[in-house]
Protein 1
Amino acid sequence: MEAYDAVVIGAGNGGLTASATLAQKGLNVLLLERHNIPGGCATTFCRGRFEFEVALHQLSGMGTPDRPGPLRMLLTDLGVLGDLEFLELSDLFNVMMPDGFRVTLKTDKEQVISELQEKFPHEKEGIQRFFDLSYNYANQMLAAFYFKDPAPSREKYPVLYEYAFKPANEVLDALFSDPVAKAIISAYWGFMGLPPTRLSFAYLAMLYFMYIEFKPFHIKGGSQALSNALANKFLSHGGTARFNCSAKKILVDDGVVRGVITEHGDQIQAKYVISNASQVSTYVQLLDGEHVPNNVLTEMRGRTLSPSAFTMFAGLDCEPADVGITETTNFLVTKADISDGNLDRMWNLDIEDEVVAFSCYDVADADFSPPGTCQLNMVTLKYGEPWLRVPPTEYFRVKYRCAEAMLRRVENFFPAIRKHMEELEVATPLTHMRYLGHPSGAIYGFEHYTKDSMFFQPGRYSPIQGLYFASGWIGDAGFQPTLHAGVAAAKSILRDLGAE
Amino acid sequence: MKKKIFQEFDGYNEIIEEIEISRKYGVDYSAHKDSPDQYINRLHPPRLRLRVSEIIEETASTKTLRLVSEDHYLPPFLAGQYIALFLEIGNIRTSRPYSISSPPNQTGHYDITIRRVEGGLVSNYLLDEVEKGDVLESSGPAGHFYHNPLFHDRTMVCLAGGSGITPFMSMVREVVECGLDRTIYLFYGNKDLEDVIFHGQLSAFSERFENIHYLPVIEAPSPGYDGLSGLITGQLIKKTLADLSGKTFCLCGPPGMYDFCIPELEALGVPSRRVRKEVYGAPLNICDSPGWPQEVKAKDVFEVQVKGGSSIKVRADEPLIVAFEKQGVAVPSLCRSGECSMCRVKILSGKVFQPAGALVRKSDRQFGYVHSCVSYPLEDLEVLL
């Protein structure tokens, strides 16, 4: 039987950093990936002369070389920074509304405040207080948890104690009366999957803090470049990767991991397994029921699946400016709604007045697409469940119906794009389900209500000895959190080994 | 036990209560066993088992294999897509993509239409060895050569060469059988009239339906032939269709046809965004490709060491994947035309030739990954599968 020190299931962000960390420390590691390329969400695909970015809009946590953020430090430790080129984005985002309203937020706190105050003079005070509050929250959160204050108290961290579990809309309602101002300040909700009525204020505050303090970044060559660099580093440390090869079973004996069986039936012995697969498939598919304690299923019962996404990838035969695109990250807001109507929209299969995140990486990176062309990534969040009801024979028709509706929304803002269309690919929640293996194509894993935050969930640990998790399913989703999750899982194994 | 800090945060008790309620009324995920795969397999099954239910003689060199599902289900596809057959011929395990020539509204079977390739391992096997009742293994439908209603014009100008007619046959049949609001001009080039596949059916569609225009073009017609002849030139297209503006052009045929027709379309002022090309396998004479190094001859043989495996001898004009298959080294494959990246391998040392048009990701190039179906050794190599 083949034997490894550890098997990592899945070469997504978490699986890649986990396997690279373990291999760097000299462990003999096998990385299994069901697809032909590494990355999971962090991939690109080619159509015609375009290479389309699948998932990455703005990389958080990088910081600058002289003021590195946590992600830059992680990539430095893994030795991949030299293989990659990063571009700092000059804006957080640009909001566009059909009546011609536009606001572009720069990546500087004071500028964000003054830009918003200029657009919403009647909300001047609320805007200042919102960002002060967000920053106070973030600083107190970091002092208490990141820097591990041994004696935290409500007196030292009043904002943390008061706001950690508060929903975003309570804070917004207390500070603002203009619904448009509320919608724009919470426009980032799409990056986390829950509308402001359900999103925790803490997430919104931390996101602003991370993006403003450490700036949003774009990677040259797209997220595939990062995945390839990590996979390459893993191989150069002697790791073994098998693509087109999924795990079929995790072998457990008496509550202890013994190895895995691959889809080809190969039995592999290992003391440690890190699952970068969904928590659902790990517990109900990869593990036999007899090895899964009841409390795991009870815990999971309380979790709900995050939305998936409806995404369009377009290649245009013109420069961004030729069709009026001037910013990299845009939120096209047809209806400034911060009610639960956003949830209803996500549960609705068809596309009506959803917020569309519209990214054009070529604005920041002129080399991203071939000279004289540009590419667009247009996405709106949609739960996957309604798509499971579409009969296979109707699938293409429904897919194009929704795509046509979305394209029309986008044409309200950029009327000339269809005239320049050279490539256009559509990904539905079923597409995301196909490539990620996540139930209902949930791109963010389980939903991230306050009750699902790290305080209340088991995180990377499992009740089975030797089995760890590294993915967006066990903590925060998104690039930076999942890249960190892989390192954290690897470190748990290294600590366990050190303890012996 | 000392209280944890977050237990003192405002709202903690309410969250604990919320967790209890959500666990009580939540989702039983143990019922989700295999469910993502089961849903996806209805659209994208990893493998299909297909029984040959009929063999239809189309021309002296061409047959259609009618394939029904052994598992009582055929996934839907878009007219123009292909399936890859996975075969074991002699002791070589290989695969070949074939466009589906039946229309998507025919849900009872897939037709694939195969023309004999001189010395072709797979075409000769399928034409000579396969019999009615045999079971073949295939991929699910795949490929990107289809009408995209979001931005392709309702009028399609199709240029087919030889066996490149098959995806268009599916499209034409769908348009006439489903009464779609689309117009097709189909220029179909062949050496002589006897080679023309589906000539009778296409002629009949063209007569009966005013939105189907079938235009066979015979390169070297016998005396007395009064149809279109020569090559599919810009002039010939222009003569048939006065107004080319806005129309979508679709090409499927051997590489030589693209080399000739694409400059013709450019000369007519057709913008490249309106030109769609189906991939058509690896180039036949790779050493004639632009950029091929003069000093390497077709017959040169190089040593290819598979990391952790065997070492094999490979001719310079042979795609790596073909050499691997001959030696029993398994590499997954699908399009075999440098498009789908299923057969991606890493070149650890040595140089390979990749013809223009192979769709390799930028960072794959950076880290030495190639598509082995369109990669040819120019030196001794070490390869990681």
Protein 2
Amino acid sequence: MIVNRKPLTFWERLYLPAIAGGLKVTLRHAYRTLFQGKKVTMEYPEQKWAVPTDYRGAPYLVKDQEGNTKCVSCQLCEFVCPPKAIRITPPGDTGLKADRTNAEKMPAEFEINMLRCIFCSFCQEVCPEEAIFLLKDYSLTGQSREEMIYDKEKLLALGGTHGGIQKWKHKLEEAKAQDNFPVKV
Amino acid sequence: MNWNFVIFSLVKIAIVIGVVQGMVAYAVLAERKISAWIQDRVGPNRCAPPFAKYIPVVGPALIRLGIFQPLADGLKFMLKEDFTPAGVRKIYFFLAPAIAVIPSMLVVAVIPFGSQIGHQQMVISDLNVGILYTFGIVSLGVYGIVLAGYAAKSKYPMFGGIRSSAQMISYEISMGMSVIPVLLIAGNLNLSRIIGWQSAHGWMVFYAPVSFIIFLIASFAETNRLPFDLPEAETELVGGYHTEYSSMKFALFFLAEYSNMVASSAMMVTLFFGGWTLPFWGLDHPAATLGAGLAHILIFLVKMLLFMVLFIWVRWMFPRFRYDQLMDLGWRRFLPLALVNILVTAVILWMKS
């Protein structure tokens, strides 16, 4: 394809209109930035972008409405995790029991290596207890590699509480209802 | 030997060098801030020493303006590793930054930055051939750049050096030619006398506007500023002639560029805008009192700063010229224009006399 370049007129070849135009544009922008506050910069740590609702940030453990640990240490997330970022230590025979009724156990230790995590949300998908969620936290920083391995306390603290159905509470209530169903006389 | 002269000269040299260095540091800040404003950004506004935020009212404002940024920049340049790439021509590699910086510092020696304080003339060296000296020294600046390009074993600095030499030569001629009408009109090569002529007859820019325009554009080319920053065209040549330099050596090139800006601004103010004079409030005669002497220095600095802002402003306004366009402009437009300008000025002066 041949593009015909229009020869510049004398006026254009003087560069003067272009210079005037450049002065005007730059002055306008400087004026707007300085006096009308129309800047494009977001001053990050003070201001932050609104994160979309389906954003996949860091995975954290959540508690239920009553402040109990939801995780039952089933280790499904540990198995499904593609980069093997999750490490769960189950309580074992003698370990601590769940802090809520009708759940058998809860993890003795639950570690997520945030340096390995790829934020794929498989753990959230696979969790039968709705105990782990990818929240909107995207700014993960630390001074060392060790610091970036988040333990259970940290994950629970960061995760906060999660409203929603309390699966085992329902089961408990159903079981109790069943016990009472054929009304004993 | 006149010890008085030696001591006063040393003091003046120290002050002038200090002021020029400070202006260079803050010109970099101004560059960053003005570019930010033009591009709808904020610019450096975080850097501050720990005590700064405890200064009431002004402290936060100074931080927002980035006043402390040059200090951090300087510190960073000092602390960076001074890396010498393999295969460079060592002697030239070490020599080039010095050769780039020294001429840019020497130029300010002949510039009268004020009238007088007491009996001391506010000029380091009141040379009778001030302008010739300036042009001689300025033209040495190109060797630093060419040497830097030649010393580094890399094609980008080489291209930068080649471009720089071609550009410098083509614009230096127009620049020199453009000043001749000024000399014809003022009838003197001494910069102080040229200012004296201007205080008597009015600013030179009204007598020789064409000279001023050519000089202005040529000084953009001389200082390697956009739209003529071909030797260091980042988008084409990585970093141009200073691609291979790091740490303080790189900082010296930076220093040279900005000192050249300061020197060109000073030259333009001196030659075309009356130097330290102001046509009203009786400020156009050599100062008799200390206050007037300081006011003259202040006037000179303000005029210079305006030109510095112009330099910076223009940089963020125009795209870069192509190499052939640059040559075309230098040789086929400005050189004939400057020659015609000389001729016309001479004829007019001849008719008048």
